[in-house]
């Protein structure tokens, strides 16, 4: 079985899986011949823009669009009442005391809940007239107090963002409270061990894909169908929600996706703007385009990350964790996202919080709160950067309290025997947790960074070394998502492979490429299975008409689930090819195999061979020669789902930083990543995923943050205010691959899309705290701004701050 997963045992041809072949997407993209949403031009096309709320919380008294309609070039302007669309509602099958469902209207109706919420759509002949029309709109509100933080959300007199969410709580679930938690804490407090408590916080971020959101919608009379071209990671879900909102059959909606300039999770949920534009196009019977500008992208698009963890952990005298007690609060903004709901962040954190460590007793409470901020969506990593940061800070604190080396305390706690079923009722498949940790530490020691740190300290320099050891759960199947009690349960994916008369194949997948090189990696899997040259494989995706249903791309599922569906479909096609070939060669089906050169050979007589072209010629052009019962087609379809808990990639990140005492700036001197994502399909692609993810993790650790004024006004409306790292701030990153083949996927691959982002914040934060170790200060909040570092250094020399408790930087 393992040989089958690793390639094509029936084939003697070249192995494509594992080869760093040139990316097939690159020629057209590098030559500027890609086709993105804003490249779409249709005859008679109109342009759309949105009138957006200027207050964070308030009742809509009036939206006057009369002056808008008088603006030259404006064709139409609509409010919610004009379009009469169904709301977007994301649901969990949980009781009312655990989950409060809320509706997100396509255009705000009676109330606005964040600055930037769309209240009307303006349609005009060109983008400039759209802007003029938006400026002519007059919206009147009765402002309410805004909820902008955990403290204001939970206040006794707090205004309600949604009346149906008492206390501004969308989800409140205690998933685990295993026996022995209290006993373990009592033993640690009274015995030779220790109890540590860490409160970690992460700032609100924007996923910031290079290409903003956009949509072109048009009505096709010939097909009696609404064609929606949009940049989404989940085209089939967009079709489903759009059809329900417009109250039309799904067959009348077709969603296609051209090239897409990134998504990172922000585009794996269904937005309201694309539905409003589609409704306008249908109403006007004209093509309509909307392209999100950068100000909208920064203030009104789905945001992410704002979370708080209060983590208590008990350790014995040997530094082994004996119990974990966690309280998680995630600020999900104004609305639940579809289909994942507001529960996605706290439910993931609660289920996976123990990370790579053997935790014998576990208690957790996870809450999602609503606030007057733009709603949140999954962003690369989805709670894992935050709960990993909490766990890694706990490990660092316990190491210091017990006088144990920070790497050694991790060694004593990481999972080493597999499969391992944790206290969280999750089974972890084999990985290299201990090996990656050892190799990462050896890398820094062999390069002399520990000696450098000590020499630098003698010179008054602040050098720190930090680690993060973690796993990335990938290949979430239907079983894993069903545990969250989602009413819409993602998981499986589908692939179809068709061979034409030239022996070339077209592979269709329900996944959605937005920078992960699917055109290359999925083709490698199919080519290996079929013994084809890579040039004879073409991938098609991003079209709801080509495949019945697909769940798109998120949660590192493309190769694990989508690639496995491709592999199974290719295997079925290979079996069909062998059946026809055996008939043509007048031998038994078990006496033939793929020859690895685009054909089938007879095993006991290698001179007897038939090419794929010959087989296809018979299948399509001379079908009377086919064996009895074989249909005249060379097509195979397969679905694939991962049973149980999925699979886990793992990694250790090792970082060396220097803190400048004059400016507070943090400079990363060394960044090493040792990762294991199972069988590597394309080494350069995986390296790119790791490095890109690490860059985004560094951004969250040191730079990017959206803050809000007390009235709910967002601080970051441009790149002047939202600080994004450049190539100058991102260091050279080395990536070392370990390889533990996965037993649950066809290729042996695990996911690799999110690991870099997951590990970077904790590794950088630990390195910063090590650099400030002489101060007694500990920083547990990201991003770490220069002023935070300066405050720590100032506090260290202040005579008023004589204890660590007093000197801890406020969260």
From TrEMBL:
* Residue span(s) of domain Aldehyde oxidase/xanthine dehydrogenase a/b hammerhead: 31-145
Cofactor(s) needed by this chain: Mo-molybdopterin cytosine dinucleotide
Recorded hits in InterPro entries, A to Z, give: Ald_Oxase/Xan_DH_a/b, Ald_Oxase/Xan_DH_a/b_sf, Ald_Oxase/xanthine_DH-like, AldOxase/xan_DH_MoCoBD1, AldOxase/xan_DH_MoCoBD2, AldOxase/xan_DH_Mopterin-bd_sf
Cite the entry's keywords alphabetically: Molybdenum, Oxidoreductase
Which molecular-function annotation in GO is an example for this chain? iron ion binding
Q: Which SMART domains match?
A: Ald_Xan_dh_C
What PANTHER family does its record include? ALDEHYDE OXIDASE 1-RELATED (PTHR11908:SF132), XANTHINE DEHYDROGENASE (PTHR11908)
Name this protein carries in UniProt: Carbon-monoxide dehydrogenase large subunit
Taxonomic source organism: Saccharopolyspora shandongensis
């Amino acid at each position: 079985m393992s040989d089958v997963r690793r390639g094509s045992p029936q084939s003697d041809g070249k192995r494509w899986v594992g080869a760093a072949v040139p990316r097939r997407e690159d020629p057209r993209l590098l030559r500027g011949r890609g086709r993105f949403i804003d490249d779409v031009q249709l005859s008679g096309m109109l342009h759309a823009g949105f009138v957006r709320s200027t207050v964070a919380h308030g009742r809509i008294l009036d939206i006057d669009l009369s002056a808008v309609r008088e603006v030259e070039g404006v064709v139409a302007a609509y409010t919610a009442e004009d379009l009469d669309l169904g709301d977007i509602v994301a649901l969990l099958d949980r009781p009312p005391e655990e989950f409060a469902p809320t509706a997100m209207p396509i255009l705000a109706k009676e109330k606005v809940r964040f600055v930037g919420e769309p209240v009307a759509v303006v349609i005009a002949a060109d983008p400039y007239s759209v802007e003029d029309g938006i400026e002519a709109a007059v919206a009147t509100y009765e402002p309410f107090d805004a909820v902008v933080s955990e403290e204001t959300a939970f206040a006794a007199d707090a205004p309600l963002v949604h009346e149906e969410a008492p206390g501004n709580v969308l989800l409140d679930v205690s998933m685990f409270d295993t026996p022995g938690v209290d006993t373990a804490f009592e033993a640690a407090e009274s015995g030779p061990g220790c109890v540590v408590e860490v409160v970690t916080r992460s700032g609100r971020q924007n996923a910031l894909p290079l290409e903003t959101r956009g949509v072109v919608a048009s009505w096709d009379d010939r097909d009696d169908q609404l064609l929606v071209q949009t940049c989404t990671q989940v085209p089939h879900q967009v079709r489903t929600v759009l059809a329900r909102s417009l109250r039309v059959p799904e067959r009348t909606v077709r969603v296609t996706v051209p090239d897409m300039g990134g998504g990172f999770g922000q585009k794996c949920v269904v937005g309201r703007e694309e539905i409003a534009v589609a409704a306008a196009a249908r109403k006007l019977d004209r093509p309509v385009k909307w392209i999100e500008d950068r100000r909208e992208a920064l203030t009104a698009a789905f945001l992410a990350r704002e979370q708080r963890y209060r983590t208590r952990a008990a350790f014995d005298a040997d530094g082994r964790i004996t119990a974990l007690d966690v309280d998680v609060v995630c600020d999900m903004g104004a609305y639940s996202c579809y289909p994942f709901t507001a529960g996605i962040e706290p439910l993931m954190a609660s289920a996976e919080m123990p990370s790579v460590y053997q935790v014998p007793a576990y208690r957790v409470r996870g809450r999602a709160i609503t606030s007057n901020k733009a709603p949140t969506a999954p962003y690369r990593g989805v709670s894992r950067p935050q709960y990993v940061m909490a766990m890694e800070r706990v490990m660092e604190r316990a190491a210091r309290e017990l006088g144990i080396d920070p790497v050694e305390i991790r060694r004593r706690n990481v999972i080493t025997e597999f499969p391992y079923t944790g206290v969280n009722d999750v089974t972890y498949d084999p990985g290299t947790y201990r090996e990656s940790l050892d190799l990462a530490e050896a890398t820094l020691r062999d390069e002399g960074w520990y000696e450098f740190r000590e020499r630098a300290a003698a010179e008054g320099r602040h050098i720190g070394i930090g680690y993060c050891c973690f796993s990335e759960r990938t290949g979430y199947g239907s079983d894993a998502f069903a545990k969250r009690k989602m009413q819409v349960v993602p998981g499986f994916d589908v692939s179809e492979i068709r061979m034409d008369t030239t022996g070339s194949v077209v592979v269709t997948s329900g996944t959605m490429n937005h920078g992960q090189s699917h055109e290359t990696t999925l083709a490698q899997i199919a080519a290996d299975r079929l013994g084809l040259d890579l040039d004879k494989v073409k991938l098609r995706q991003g079209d709801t008409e080509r495949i019945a249903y697909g769940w798109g791309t998120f949660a590192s599922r493309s190769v694990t689930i989508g690639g496995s569906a491709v592999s199974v479909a290719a295997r079925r096609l290979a079996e069909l090819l062998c059946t026809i070939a055996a008939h043509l060669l007048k031998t038994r089906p078990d006496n033939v195999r793929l020859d690895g050169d685009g054909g089938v050979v007879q095993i006991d007589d290698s001179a007897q061979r038939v090419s794929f072209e010959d087989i296809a010629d018979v299948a399509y052009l001379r079908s009377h020669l086919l064996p009895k019962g074989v249909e005249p087609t060379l097509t195979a379809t397969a679905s694939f789902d991962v049973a149980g808990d999925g699979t886990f990639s793992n990694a250790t990140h090792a970082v060396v930083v220097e803190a400048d005492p004059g400016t507070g700036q943090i400079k990363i001197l060394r960044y090493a990543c040792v990762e294991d994502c199972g069988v590597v399909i394309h080494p350069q692609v995986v390296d790119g995923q790791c490095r890109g993810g690490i860059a985004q993790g560094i951004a969250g650790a040191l730079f990017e943050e959206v803050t809000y004024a007390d009235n709910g006004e967002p601080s970051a409306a441009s790149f002047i205010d939202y600080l994004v790292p450049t190539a100058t701030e991102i260091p050279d990153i080395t990536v070392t691959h370990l390889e533990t083949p996965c037993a649950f996927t066809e290729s042996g691959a695990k996911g690799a899309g999110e690991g870099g982002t997951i590990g970077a914040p904790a590794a950088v934060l630990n390195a910063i705290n090590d650099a400030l170790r002489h101060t007694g200060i500990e920083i547990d909040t990201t991003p770490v701004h220069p002023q935070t570092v300066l405050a720590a250094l100032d506090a260290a020399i202040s005579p008023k701050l004589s204890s660590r408790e007093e000197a801890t930087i406020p969260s």
